[in-house]
Design brief:
heterodimer; A: alpha+beta; Aldehyde Oxidoreductase, domain 3; four-stranded mixed β-sheet; 4 helices; B: 5 strands; 25% helix; globular
Chain lengths: 147, 83
């Protein structure tokens, strides 16, 4: 089961996780990563812009790669866009497998690749009215390259 | 050709999208950026440093030597920062 969604609305990690195990008896574990908006440096809000059409294609492509590379029974990738307040969940990656190694490794692979291969851009808004675009980090490129 | 701009590239160019017909000598992504830079002060500012800009042709990431054609959708944007 492969689920990819790009949406403005919040998501429910518990419900998404339950859906990966529902009705099957071959799931031994589900790994999850939830990315949450931090409030660094007085951040008031984070605005995520994306490239409609390409975003869905890129996320599906990355999720299919994970399904081919690891013996997964299911994989869910949900990425939000729009205005996020500190504490808001932004991205959810779930990977289900019979055994933990495949689930944990593929979850790390997916979030590393999302950082460098999904067409999203973050703009930070601060309490004093200033704003800035988040710059891509070399360490994210290095994290994706290890796979 | 359909051009799309995202993030600060969009802010500098001043529009999110435009339809243009580049001259025949514009053959690849690098050539397209050089031509776009001549179109307005906003374009010139956005494309002042092509190395800071990434591109996609028909919704696939594309390098500076990737070919572009009349009916393509070409997008320009900063390095991505999702996740």
């Amino acid at each position: 089961m492969l689920t990819v969604r790009v949406q403005e609305a919040a998501f429910d990690p518990a419900a998404e996780s339950a859906a990966l195990a529902a009705g099957r008896q071959d799931v031994g574990g589900i790994a999850s990563f939830t990315g949450i908006c931090r409030a660094d440096d007085g951040l008031a809000a984070m605005v995520l812009e994306h490239y409609p059409g390409m975003t869905e294609r890129a996320l599906e492509d990355i999720a299919r790669q994970a399904m081919r590379r690891w013996p997964l029974t299911g994989c869910t990738v949900i990425h939000r866009y729009g205005r996020m307040l500190p504490g808001a969940p932004i991205v959810l990656v779930l990977t289900a497998s019979a055994h933990r190694a495949a689930a944990l490794e593929s979850c790390a692979f997916l979030i590393d690749w999302l950082k460098t291969s999904a067409p999203f851009w973050k703009r930070e808004e601060f309490a004093d009215g200033t704003e800035r675009w988040v710059e891509a980090k070399a360490e994210d490129e290095a994290a994706a390259a290890r796979w | 050709m359909k051009l799309l701009y995202f993030a600060w590239v969009r802010q500098k160019v001043g529009v999110a999208e435009e339809k243009l017909s580049p001259p025949a000598e514009v053959r690849d992504v690098a050539g397209l950026m050089a031509w776009l830079a001549t179109r307005s002060p906003g374009h010139a500012d956005a494309f002042a440093n092509p190395r800071q800009i990434r591109a996609a042709v028909n919704q696939d990431f594309a390098g500076p030597t990737a070919l572009v054609a009349a009916n393509d959708e070409v997008a320009f944007f900063p390095p991505v920062t999702g996740g």
